[in-house]
Amino acid sequence: MASRAPVATGRLLLGVRKWYYNLCGFNKIGLMRDDTILEDSDVKEALRRIPEAQYNDRMFRIKRALDLSMKQQILPKDQWTKYEADDRYLTPYLEEVIRERQEREEWMKR
Prior knowledge:
Strand content: under 5%
Structural class: mainly alpha
């Protein structure tokens, strides 16, 4: 009986994550999680490093979301970004930029 608890907890946690993902609302205007990150110097550097096709896709999603927001509309439900399809495309680049910045700061301290 104890072996079932982690599986049930994992499914419950996944359900909560999906519920919260849909509650946030950015998926209803076609955005992905990484599209909503506030652009600071680290994010700008990470955006500079992503492939051009991914950058163009990001800009299309953001422009479409701005247009929908101005019109106070949302996409049809079949066009919403799904939790399973939301790819963290920027996160690996952002982690690399932050790691490099921290390493540079460590070298500057010495």
